[in-house]
Amino acid sequence: MTARERFESSMTEAKDLLGLFRALKEIVVATLDLSDILRASLVFGVGALDSYVHTKLVDELVDRSGKNPPVLTNRALGLNIRLETFLSTVNSGSLEEKVRKLVTEVLSWQTFQRSERIVEALKLLKQGNFWEFAAAQSSTSQQDLIAGLDEVVDRRNAIAHEGDRGEISPTDWRRRPINDVYVEKSHQMIVKLVDCMEKYLA
Question: Which pTM was predicted?
Fold first, then answer.
């Protein structure tokens, strides 16, 4: 499965949760809080983006390493490989399998969600200004694209690490409100960013 196919599958799950919320909202009593379905949908969407970038990086680096000569950026050539991981690949598998294992190990602990992390990831594959390219593709300013993504990722982190609670006052630690329109717009933005990455790397 390609990075794009995996992303689309994951986004379908995120969108299905949004659809579930909307369907249930029509049939359950108003006092029942369904907002956690929306929070899960948002987390799934950001997770789909993170997974896409990871998979795209690994697949592209493996493919480019197999060319003669290898087509790799200086940043990619400078990846820090653990000696233990390198030694584990010396006597096993094809070149492709070795490179895949090494790259996966290096990237496994990293997240690619916030704007600056996505830029770092893409520079392993291509020198250039991704946000400038994305802005031209979407007729949106670089600043707005970056701020929009980072706001959604911050919200995802608040959900995952704080239960989506924010301090209103020293004695008031309530959950932030969330609605289906916000989540849908977040999904749309993530899909557009992945579309731009596909074109940028083509």
Answer: 0.89
